[in-house]
Amino acid sequence: MRFGFKCPLILAATAAAVIYGFTGFSFVAGDDLSMPDVFAVASGAENGTAAEIIAVAQDACEALAEEASETDRKLSGDDIIIDAAPSEETADIAEETADTAEETADIAEETADTAEETADTAEDTADTAEETADIAEETADIAEETADTAEETAEAETGETVDKEDGPGETADKEEGFEERADTAVIPEEETSLPPVQKAAVTDEKPWERSVVHTATDTVEADYFADALFIGDSRTVGLSQYCPELDEQAEFYSKVSLTVKGALDKPFVKTEDGRKTVDEMLSDGRQFGKIYIMLGINEIGGGSDESFADDYSAMIDRIREKQPNAMIFIQSIMHVTKRKSDSDRHINNPRIDSRNAAIARLADAEKGIYYVDINQAVDDGEGNLTADLSFDEVHLKAVSYGLWYDFLKTHAHI
Amino acid sequence: MSFTDLNFVFRFLPVFLLLYYIFPVSFRPYVLAAGSLVFYAFADPRCLPVLIMMGIWNCIMAPACAKKDKAALCFGVGLDIVLLCAAKILAATYDPVFLPVGMSFYTFRMIAFLADSYRGKIPSSDGWGGGTSFADALCYFFMFPQLAMGPIMRFSDYRKCAAFRTPVVIKKSVRFRNLIQRLENGMTFFIAGMAFKVLLADHLEPLWQSLNTAGYESISTPLAWLGIASRSMQIYYDFMGYSLMAAGLGVMLGFPFVKNFDQPYAAGSVSEFYRRWHMTLGSFFRDYVYIPMGGSRCGWARTAANLAFVWLLTGIWHGITPGFFIWSGSLLLLILVEKALDERGLKRKKVIGRINVLFFIPLTWCAFSIDAPGRLAAYFLRLFPILGDSAGIVYRGDFKAALEEYGIYLFFSLVFLFPQVYHYFGKKRRKPAVTVLFIVLFALCVISVKRTGSNPFMYAGF
Q1: Co-location of A252 and A395 in the same domain
Q2: B371, B322 contact by CB (below 8 A)
Q3: Is the distance from CB of B51 to CB of B106 less than 8 angstroms?
Q4: If you placed Cys at A353, which of A202, A300, A387, B182 could pair as Cys (CB 3.0 to 4.6 Å)?
């Protein structure tokens, strides 16, 4: 007993070491974004990446197959109003297109297989991943071909139709569609292996195109935001600090490292009666006309797209309950810069894109829920946050927040 | 694997200490050398061969140096310097990965070892090898408490290691009590260092980051000043904390306490500041560069030239970037001004010295932290708004917000700058209340590291 008094630190440290040995202090809440520890990196991390590759590749082939069948349907379907001969030609080309697309799908499947192998042989991951990248590039090339062929078809068709004086609107639309597809397919010049495939998977869906109506031809005035509320994480905090014109008008319930799960129930809103939760503020406070939300970057390391969208949806439902007349704007999670995206296992743009696609589906114009793709305002042309706008690769610099504000002003719903 | 990594604290260290003390005295250098290589393999496995090759190379050269062979000394030291410079240049021009972890520090230990061999300070009866074994030299080069970031211990201190000698006291209980005391002492230093690093430096880091994130052109002038005060204290607690942890580990292994910081902000002049800041680097340059070149004995011009050379080397040692050259250049200037004032026997030199330490040194940390001259200029525009206008959008409430968020850490950082406070805890560390405080601090450190991770030590980049 007397001995214990002589070495209290040794005893305390030994006890802690034993506890750590058994539990790893799992009872101390770790941050989602905390650094991966040495052992995790050594053992299983690469498998995760391979699994991701598979998932993305599968998505990609599904998307391509869908696209192909759609092209097929569109081209041979009843909306073609041209002579018999070109129509036959078109059908042929369409068939070709479908074939190419099938090939594409096969190769994409191969990609998936290769990726599966990758998962099996963890040591060879790097090599195989390179192969995967090559194949992915091929896939992209073929997708490009598909697009080209399709474009040709469209051109042929359009030529004919325009001559035929009716329905230029429809065909023009179609052409635009094809062009866009070509755009999405022509990305493979990036050195990294993943983005091309993933881009194809994500951008092809664009569900918000179906459901979002908020386009204004003009810029709204600052007082448009007089009845607006912004809920968000550090990025929204930045918006409130470095966009005084908006801060004068709108209310901000924002907090550094806020998450969707904690958004409504963490007491962080400062009032005269102490700190309150957003939930409390929305229930007994004023009624807002617009509620802008940007959340998600802080929990991007955990959960799945589905669970994230579920949480998001639950949050919106709760807000809607308290604020029946507010328009709710889901702002896309803002991208990070290319450098950050290429180097971070969790916080990268492909993952942000897939999270965004998941929450974009929650938009529903009939319920007054809109999706605003804020990334358009800060994009570098390759789907990343423009490097010059940020110092830390994640947040906007003070002088860059104006871009965000201006974008909201031109994408208002009146 | 850094010292604040919980896998180091709770897995590597206990296992290592157990093995270290289980083995008989004569095996311990081998255990320490091997354990250090394992430690290094966790930190930077790709550069392990570089470390081993350089270790062996210096071991081969040392006996030749010990025979007063000047050519061998030049050749040995020359290769060390060339390798270090090559790594620094590659790291600066291509990619920081070219600089192996700890190379700046272990190369300096190797150079010191060769120079000491040449000067006959390495004990040996017949040339080299009698009193000092191959294992001793390798162990001295590799020892993990000092591998990553110093301090640059001298071989004479290495020789004093209590764990490497057959104890004079035969009685087992006494030997055991000595061992326990050693561990307990070392742990006190280790925990104190960890608290400085994790609880103060790591919690001041986000303040500096928030300035970067906003962009220097967009911070208010009060915040700019708070920023450099905070940054200065952060750099201090970061490296002082590390040094204390390293010294504590050394004490646990039986080495004498290596002093690397001695209350620098209480210094009365810039040159005194740097005798108290990173003391082992300063004394290395003094003993192996400045004094061999003539020191301050050969007239005013020669002294200035010697100082300039030492500070140029100091700048290069930290990294080949404009920021470090501006940093070391401005320090050189301050020291020369002080020397000039000294010559004239100015009465108020104490006051001027204090102003230099508390006002100009923080400004130099600004250059130390900001790499690009353009951004440095932007920061100075905010510090001294009379110099010109900046184009940014300033958030007026930023100073108050920062003070609210970081006030508590700034307060404790400031308090521990006073030597009286620091020494009070040092003296009373055996008192039960202080011991409880240490245990609480340790628990807080662990929780903090577990929650948010710890930032890498700054000096790991040099």
Answers
A1: yes
A2: yes
A3: yes
A4: A202
Contact B217 A39 (CB under 8 A): no
Residue of A nearest to B13 (CA): A17
Instruction: Tell me whether B347 touches chain A (CB under 8 Å).
Output: no
Q: Which residues of B touch A398 (CB under 8 A)?
A: 214-215, 217-218, 392-395
Residues A150 and A279 in one domain: no
Note whether A15 and A49 are same-domain residues. no
**Which tokens sit at A39?**
């052992």
pLDDT along chain A (414 residues), means of 10: 66 88 72 32 33 44 50 41 42 57 62 54 50 59 58 47 39 38 35 36 39 57 91 93 92 91 91 90 88 93 91 95 92 94 91 94 89 93 93 91 92 80
pLDDT score of B19 more than 50: yes
- Mind listing the pLDDT tens digit for each residue in B3-13? 999 999 999 99
Domain boundary among A205, A227, A242: A205
The residue among B413 and A162 whose pLDDT is bigger is B413
Q: Is there a single domain that holds both residue A341 and residue A267?
A: yes
Considering the domain architecture, whether residues A196 and A277 belong to the same structural domain is answered as: no
Expressed as residue numbers, the domain containing A254 is 210-410
User: Which of A205, A231, A247 delimits the end of a domain?
Assistant: A205
Question: What CA–CA distance (Å, rounded) separates B303 from B226?
Answer: 36
Both A351 and A317 in a single domain? Answer: yes
Identify the burial level of B375 via C-beta atoms within 10 angstroms of its C-beta, where 0-12 means exposed, 13-18 middle and 19 or more buried: middle
Residue A276's DSSP bridge partners are A269
CA distance B415 to chain A (A): 25
Residues A246 and A368 in one domain: yes
- Res A301: pLDDT: 86
* Inter-chain CB proximity A7 and B435 less than 8 Å: no
- Residue A255 token pair: 């907090």
Distance of alpha carbon B194 from alpha carbon B446, whole angstroms: 9
Q: Does residue A171 belong to any structural domain of this protein?
A: yes
Asked whether residue A289 falls in the same domain as residue A330, the answer is yes
Domain boundaries, chain B: 6-166, 181-261+396-462, 263-387
Among left, alpha and beta (phi > 0; psi -120 to 50; other), residue B263 is: left
